[in-house]
Design brief:
Shape of chain A: elongated
Helix content of chain A: 55-70%
Structural class of chain C: alpha/beta
Chains: A alpha+beta (791), B mainly beta (346), C alpha/beta (218)
Number of strands of chain C: 10
Strand content of chain A: 5-15%
Largest sheet of chain C: 6 strands, mixed
CATH superfamily of chain C: P-loop containing nucleotide triphosphate hydrolases
Radius of gyration of chain A: 33 Å
Largest sheet of chain A: 10 strands, mixed
CATH class of chain C: Alpha Beta
Helix content of chain C: 25-40%
Oligomer: heterotrimer
CATH architecture of chain C: 3-Layer(aba) Sandwich
Number of helices of chain A: 24
Structural class of chain A: alpha+beta
Order of helices and strands of chain C: EEEHEEHEHHHEHEHEE
Number of domains of chain C: 1
Distance between the termini of chain A: 26 Å
Radius of gyration of chain C: 17 Å
Shape of chain C: globular
Distance between the termini of chain C: 21 Å
């Protein structure tokens, strides 16, 4: 019996393939972006974990040199012989590769690839060998044997410490990890190695935490498109149930028990949902694969986090994709099944115009919208933190979406009142009647368009600010990087004679509590004075800095630390300086404190300038003579244009991802409109037939249908502009500050919005075209049937 | 002292990865192998033999506090080679590790250290004798008077050892056969140390004195493939005689045993294979395993029929290579003290 | 008796309080008998039919089919009884639009696991439906659709055929033709028939007539 019933139920779909397609495609779309984003996030997290697991600087106390970056190997032996259970680490760069050497014998358990044994055995047996991820191995060219180890962070290679020393041509160590278990009676550090300092384990420099905001951003997009996709699913399920009411009544009057019928329908819908969800997960995998390279570039550029360039099929995300799709379907389904269970057996067979929702529903929606919008207002005034920012976004967007049908109804009523001809009066009345059926699709369009407006405003504002910032910051024509102290002195002397202005840069890590902060020592000169534009400054900031009486901090530092101009900032231990100015510093993840070079050297006598900015009239000649006279390698001298190009490239890729997600949500919204119109088309025939009978041609009716879609899209767009701008404001003034640490000025881009308006009208036009064509081709007999019998 | 070989080769993963399981029994990949009729050259042979795969300096001691309280102590420096020979710096194929333990009737403390050869963190020099890893050391002007030091996170000791008798050579003049297939090692002992010093324990420093036993052993292919575990006994009877005996358990359920009888004058008599017999009496559950911590040991040729029972059944060495090792009390036909090591119990 | 109504009561709630639709209705129907139920609109005819089919419940009295009281049964039991004993024909054709005519006819029989292909062919032929078995219901005329509904009802070999204005939507000629075909087939199976109708012509073709007025048999 169940088989017979199932055949009858399924036959509905074969006779209404568009509905079936809408159902499956809606689910697939919902699942695709969601699981795609989840896949990217999972990949990134796995990369962070790999990095953290293998060389987690944070989880152990460490011994670091007080000055410089080198610890003689004898110091390591002396410490061990004095009872310090420490393990040596050497770090360096080999071309693009970050090389990490560890001693697998003394390293804490679990550090290094596959346990210590593999490293060591290969050290003794097969000679030198590097361990790295597949993606890293493809990009490097070293003449050392390579073993692929998926657990190692991208861009990095791990090897035995002896191998690493030979490859780096060094015989010293970079730092010493202090193992948790230390023996009794250990000799004081100061007695054995006073030149080392103990850095406590730090949990703050967690890359996962830094990048959380970015992933939250992605997740928000994924969720947005999931919501839009579920709109489609919801409305399709609603329609399919309405159309099958008659069948359900028939089945029951023929003697199919209610419980069995409900079970059967649930099974049927969930099976179909599973098909859609699987398709969505596959699509999500493809989307993730396409987006990942840009995401990886973004994370590297913004946060210095390396993630793998390829997506792996991880159970976590595909399972979560399937589950959320099925769960979403189940929720949509439950209401309908409840209706069936409580539907009187002899209820009307006519497909009740489910689309014609009552005023009550509108009122309920509007009330919800008002509450959400009020919530958004409260959050905007009082909200804090990234989560608060996203909650504000959520309230704003959902509230606006919920109130949209009511707003649209008001606008349409206005048109209706002003319509002169009866045809137009009918047109507007009919449009209003269709509104409930289309409202989900229109909400989807609203969300997509306003997200587009908001994000494009943010990106364009950011671009304007960033380009200006680069021009200020990259005033020097050349940047020279040196390797050794001797080189540093040589370059300084040479440039003093040959360049217009030399800007040596001293760089170290500030010894303060809190997140890692870079301490810069600069030689204040005309370039700094003329080019740096401060967000806020006290009087004569550069004079204060030059005199060693103040510091310039970047915006993200100031915001994170909750300090501003005039407040005192700790620059070394307990030593504090007043903040002379706060400077915008876009595209940089870490906090910066800028003081005069002389001041920095009083705290860090060993720090010498390893980087020089050079002002010169003759870039090419100076570059050449640096190479020829001092033997500075060509790749250690970078000119301004190259850095600018590189920075812009990082910037562009950062937003490629967002742009792609934007385009996809717009696409989904267009699809939602198409599906709504198509599924409504059959129900529309009885409403159009009388108008046709009165002498309006099918062709003309078709045109009106298209016009209706355009009119609705236009209404949506008009609503989307203010919403999008509000969104942009939230992104620029709240989300960016929380996520990246900088607040950006907001610029408006009317031409861009106009373009988006055209796109959304285009999407509506495309979506309406096919249903309209179908209408024009409806045979007269089908229209006549409306009068011939009641089905 | 075959037990340590089993321990070393079966459990320490480095060696397994380096040479592979198949290499355990027969293949020695360029390592030197022990040959019968050894001629030892002292003091050089107290130092390391890098051409052999494994080697150790192994001290166990039965101690007593002023109040008569019994204690046990272990200090072992192991050397394992990933390849034969020595090289300078990180290229050295030698890896060192060490275990130290103190046992009281109520508690057992253990600690371990690791080191690479070639960089000075650990090593052994023959004369003057100096064996060290980190701050742990066994050293003295010669092999007869040694200072011993170790520190763990919650215990430590500083001891002085004074040899009252000669070195004792096991097997055939120091060539100790370990299986019927002929696997063997070089093996000699100094079982006649008087020891005194202080134990550092959580409750404070305890002055102690007693008897210590030092084992020296090196080899490259010590085990046959079918040997799975090992029970090693060093027993000192109150009348001054001593007995070293071990059982190698084989995967067919049979055992291979060997033993050396040491008279109070220091004369060593190698007993025939399988003359030494030990039967587990009581098992104790520790670290998820059933460990026999009480044994019936018989050696009819010498009239030995004794019960050997652990001072503390929980003498579990919870280290990278876990095993049981601790002091024992002897009762029955003879009384005395000793040390027991058991490996390969899963 | 195949069908017994014993002092059946039924009322609906209205804005102005309860409306008594059936008041102490008692009658019975023997196997093979045909019965016309007539009365004005709102006299309770359809309600009576729905109660007989177990689609609705009565408030009082007893409704027995083959001796079993419908009012004591749950939904599942009544559904099972409907499936095996009763066939319904409504004024609206009540076909499943997404199934072909052939599938519609065989549908109830297959649900009840008593599908007899030869018999179904016989019924389809008798009702003149052989040519349109592979078409979908929406392509048929009203008379043809009602024939399909009747064919579906009879294909399951019910003991009781309940029909609510089966020819109400058809023109006079077609109505007569369809009714005659139905009665002929029913006669072959020996099923009892109860038809709710306005038409005196239809009523005249039945063995017995019952007239409802204000919820009471007169």
């Amino acid at each position: 019996m169940m088989g017979v019933c199932l055949t009858a139920l399924l036959s509905h779909w074969w006779r209404n393939p568009i509905q079936l397609f809408a159902y499956l495609a809606g689910l697939a779309l919902a699942t695709a972006l969601w699981s795609g984003v989840q896949a990217i996030n999972a990949e990134a997290r796995a990369s962070y974990d790999a990095a953290a697991g293998l060389l987690d600087d944070g989880q152990f106390d460490q011994l670091l040199p007080r000055q410089g970056t080198s610890i003689p190997q004898e110091v390591y032996i002396a410490l061990r012989r004095a009872g310090w259970v420490v393990s040596p680490v050497i770090e360096g760069r080999l071309g693009k590769l970050r090389l990490l050497g560890i001693d697998p014998v003394t390293a804490p358990r679990g550090l290094g690839p596959g346990g210590p044994a593999r490293l060591l055995s290969l050290e003794a047996g097969a000679g030198d060998r590097l361990f790295m991820a597949q993606s890293t191995a493809q990009g490097v060219d070293v003449d050392v044997a390579v073993t692929i180890d998926a657990g190692i962070a991208p861009g990095m290679a791990i090897a035995d410490i002896g191998v690493t020393q030979r490859l780096l041509k060094r015989n010293d160590l970079s730092r010493l990890i202090i193992l948790p278990q230390q023996p009794l009676g250990r000799v004081e550090l100061a007695q054995i190695a006073p030149e080392l300092r103990l850095q406590p384990a730090q949990q703050t420099a967690d890359i996962g935490q830094l990048t959380d905001s970015f992933h939250l951003n992605l997740s928000a997009f994924g969720l947005l498109s999931f919501a839009v996709g579920l709109f489609i699913v919801h409305s399709t399920i609603g329609l399919a149930f309405e159309q099958r009411r008659g069948m359900i009544r028939t089945l029951r009057s023929l003697g199919v028990p209610l419980r069995g019928l409900i079970t059967l329908i649930a099974v049927e819908m969930m099976l179909l949902a599973a098909v859609g969800a699987v398709a969505g997960v596959v699509a999500g995998y493809l989307i993730a694969g396409l987006l990942l390279p840009d995401v990886a570039a973004t994370l590297r550029g913004l946060y210095g986090a390396d993630i793998a360039g390829t997506i792996q099929l991880r159970r976590s995300w595909w399972l979560s994709g399937l589950l959320i799709a099925l769960l979403g379907t189940a929720v949509a389904l439950t209401g309908r099944l409840w209706q069936i269970a409580h539907m009187p057996l002899l209820a009307s067979v006519r497909p009740r115009a489910w689309v014609m929702a009552t005023d009550a529903r509108f009122r309920l929606q509007s009330r919800g919208a008002v509450i959400l919008l009020a919530g958004a207002l409260v959050l905007a005034l009082l909200g804090q933190g990234l989560v608060g920012g996203f909650a504000l976004l959520g309230c704003l967007l959902i509230g606006a979406a919920l109130i949209l049908p009511k707003l649209a109804a008001v606008v349409i009523t206005m048109f209706e009142r002003n319509a002169r001809s009866p045809l137009w009066q009918w047109f507007w009345a009919d449009t209003k009647q269709q509104l409930p059926g289309l409202s989900l699709a229109l909400m989807a369009l609203l969300l997509a368009v306003s997200a587009n407006i908001g994000v494009s405003t943010m990106v364009s504002s950011f671009r304007l600010t960033f380009v200006g910032f680069l021009d200020q910051r990259l005033a020097p024509e050349l940047f020279v990087q040196v390797e050794t102290a001797a080189q540093s002195a040589e370059v300084q002397a040479f440039l003093d004679k040959n360049a217009t202005e030399v800007l040596p840069l001293l760089k170290t890590r500030a010894r303060t509590v809190g997140p890692p902060t870079e301490l810069y020592g600069v030689q204040v000169g005309p370039t700094y004075r003329e080019n740096w534009v401060f967000l806020d400054a006290g009087r004569a900031p550069w004079d204060t800095v030059a005199a060693g009486l103040g510091a310039v901090v970047n915006e993200q530092f100031a915001r994170r630390a909750g300090l501003w101009v005039g407040d005192r900032v700790a620059i070394d231990g307990d030593t504090t300086l007043p903040i002379a100015a706060v400077v915008g510093d876009y595209g940089n993840p870490s906090g910066q404190i800028v003081v005069s070079a002389q001041l920095l050297q009083t705290f860090h006598p060993g720090v010498i300038p390893m980087q020089f900015g050079v002002r010169t009239q003759n870039t090419l000649a100076l570059r050449q003579s640096l190479q020829d006279t001092l033997g500075i390698p060509a790749n250690a001298i970078v000119n301004q244009a190259a850095i600018k190009a590189l920075s812009m490239q990082v910037f562009e890729r950062t937003f490629t991802v967002t742009a792609a997600l934007n385009a996809l949500t717009l696409l989904v919204a267009g699809f939602a409109i198409l599906m709504s119109l198509l599924t409504l088309a059959d129900l529309r025939v009885p409403q159009l037939a009388p108008v046709w009978a009165l002498g309006i041609t099918r062709r003309y009716l078709g045109r009106l249908e298209v016009l209706r879609a355009l009119a609705l899209a236009a209404v949506v767009f008009v609503c989307a502009v203010p919403l999008g701008l509000a969104l942009a404001w939230v992104l620029l003034s709240i989300i960016n500050v929380e996520a990246f640490g900088w607040r950006l000025p907001m610029y408006l881009f009317p031409a861009e919005y106009l373009r988006l308006g055209v796109y959304s009208l285009g999407a509506a036009l495309l979506a309406a075209l096919w249903p309209a064509l179908r209408l024009m081709r409806t045979p007269p007999s089908a229209l006549l049937k409306v009068f011939a019998n009641e089905r | 002292m075959n037990a340590k070989l089993v321990l070393f080769l079966l459990v320490f993963p480095v060696t397994l990865w380096a040479q592979g399981f198949s290499g355990l029994g027969a293949q020695v990949d360029g390592f030197a192998t022990p040959a019968p009729n050894p001629v030892f050259d002292f003091p050089e042979d107290h130092g390391p033999h890098p051409d052999f795969r494994i080697e150790w300096w192994y001290v166990t001691a039965n101690l007593q506090g002023a109040d008569g309280q019994d204690y046990g102590l272990q200090w072992t420096l192991f050397r394992t080679a990933l390849a034969p020979g020595e090289a300078a710096g990180w290229r050295s194929p030698q890896v060192w590790f060490a275990h130290a333990a103190v046992t009281t009737p109520k508690a057992h403390f253990a600690s371990e250290r690791f080191a690479r050869g070639g960089i000075g963190q650990a090593g052994v020099e023959a004369a003057p004798f100096h064996a060290w890893i980190d701050e742990w050391a066994l050293s003295g002007a010669d092999f007869d008077r040694l200072d011993l030091k170790a520190r763990g996170a919650d215990f430590g000791f500083d001891m002085t050892l004074d040899a009252l008798g000669p070195l004792v050579f096991h097997g055939a003049d120091g060539y100790s056969v370990k299986s019927r297939e002929g696997q063997a090692s070089y093996y000699y002992s100094q079982p006649f140390f008087d020891i005194e010093g202080k134990l550092i324990l959580p409750e404070g420093t305890v002055p102690v004195s007693g008897k210590a036993w030092l084992d020296r052993e090196w080899s490259s292919q010590p085990l046959s493939e079918n040997q799975t575990g090992w029970d090693w006994f060093s027993l000192s009877f109150d009348d001054g005689a001593k007995l070293m005996g071990f059982l190698l358990r084989q995967n067919d359920g049979t055992t291979f045993s060997a033993s050396t009888w040491i008279t109070s004058e220091g004369e060593a008599v190698t007993l025939p294979a399988d003359a030494f017999r030990a039967v587990a009496l009581e098992k104790h559950r520790i670290a998820g395993r059933e460990i026999p911590t009480s044994w019936q040991v018989t050696l009819p040729e010498r009239g030995i029929n004794v019960t050997v029972a652990a001072l503390n059944p929980n003498s579990w060495m919870d280290l990278s290579i876990p095993y049981w090792e601790g002091p024992v009390r002897i009762s029955g036909s003879h009384a005395g003290k000793g040390y027991l090591e058991m490996t390969g119990y899963e | 008796m195949l069908l017994e109504f014993d002092r059946v009561e039924k009322s609906f709630a209205d804005n102005e309080g309860p409306v008594r639709v059936l008041q102490g209705v008692s009658f019975d129907l023997a196997p093979g008998q045909t019965l016309a139920l007539t009365g004005e609109s709102g006299s309770g005819k359809s309600t009576l039919l729905h109660i007989a089919a177990g689609l609705e419940s009565a408030d009082g009295g007893a409704v027995r089919i083959a001796g079993r009281d419908l009012l004591q049964m749950g939904d599942a039991e009544r559904a099972a009884l409907r499936l095996s004993q009763i066939a319904l024909v409504f004024q609206q054709f009540n076909l499943i639009p997404s199934l072909t005519v052939g599938a519609n006819i065989a549908f109830q029989a297959r649900l009840a696991r008593c599908a007899d292909a030869a018999y179904i062919d016989h019924i389809a032929a008798a009702l003149g439906l052989t040519a349109c078995l592979h078409k979908y219901p929406e392509t048929l005329s009203g008379g043809q659709q009602q024939r399909v509904a009747i064919a579906r009802a009879l294909a399951a070999k019910p003991n009781l055929l309940l029909a609510d204005e089966p020819t109400g939507n058809l023109d006079e000629g077609t109505a007569h033709e369809v009714l005659e075909q139905m009665l002929k087939l029913v006669a072959q199976t020996g099923a009892a028939v109860m038809i709710v109708t306005h038409s005196p012509v239809v009523a005249a073709r039945m063995d017995r007539n019952l007239h409802l007025r204000g919820g009471q048999l007169v």
